[in-house]
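User: Can you predict the 3D structure for this chain?
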Amino acid sequence: MTTLDDDQEQLRSNLELIGRENINDLEAVLSLVGHYEVEGFHRVPDNCPAEFTWDYEKGAKPQLDKLYEKAKKAQWNAQTDLDWSIEVDQEKVVMANAEANPGQMQWDPAALVGTALETWDDKRFLQFGIENQNWLLSQFMHGEQGALLCTAKIVETVPWIDAKYYAATQVMDEARHVEVFSKYLDEKLSGHYPMNAHLGLLLDDIVADSRWDMTYLGMQIMVEGLALAAFGFIHMMTTEPLLKKLLRYVMADEARHVAFGVLSLQEYYKELTAAELRERQEFAFEAAIRMKDRMAMQEVWERMEVPTSDVVKIMSMAPERDDFQILLFSKIVPNLRKLGLLDAADGWLRTKFTEMGAIAFEHLTDSTEDEDAFADGSPADRQVA
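Assistant: Here is the predicted structure, written as structure tokens:
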């Protein structure tokens, strides 16, 4: 096991990494709420060096070349491959989803006593469900734009031609994902939400870092890994046919994207020092907490005018919420293990994921093995001449 000398790297506290000592401090989590900038855009400094390569040999990295060939065949058209004539009645969808998933979508009456929700009628709870849909799809859309920017950056910065080729196909994938979620929000749902504050902090960090492997780690491994799991859960729970098919198409792309990250970083991380690996571990931990924090849906609670103290009480009395959040790391932990980050530098990241309750996923299939798992029934399994 690789060890760290005291003068190589000092252990950084939770306060230094995520701004608070207690990772489960709900008041701190809820205190950050995302809002749109008045200018209508958000600008992040990005001083990464663009790298040309004069080694044009295609297939020098066979696994990346195979993924590139697969991606070329798997392209789909958001406008024509989905049936946009399907009508979506949000109220009916919320009620149907609740009926189909009673264990996931019911409120504990005891948790609502003394809170604003105690006075809500059925119409108000229904509106919360609608806002939840709008918020969730909005975060998917914003996250996909983050992936679009990061993958374009990978084309610029990664040193291998096979990786540049594949990353170029992912740029197209991410543009399509932004398009499809935006279209669904605009035409089928009833409103947008700004980017969640915690997701925004993470994407800013990923975009601003000049090192190509940090872009991979933050986006391909962490953000895309959690998105793949989240899409899978929503696909399983939703009763709405257009969204179900849309998510299946997106999941087929995302599985390749995460595999791309693992294949690209696995060899590179074997060359890093213990101190360099510790820095990657800390970045992965910070990313994990940011993504866990965003699931508190701060923006929805604010719009529904529920006081923070009430939200803390409701969430504190809902242990299944933590269980669901931890399940979202089922795609991330095996990939971090594959990259050697769980046990590098005296196993610091293993300890952190053990504290989070997510270490049990480490032996699940990693993304280099299940890149085809979501291709059935989607354009990803077409054989294009």
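The two ends are 48 Å apart (CA to CA). The first helix runs from residue 14 to 18.
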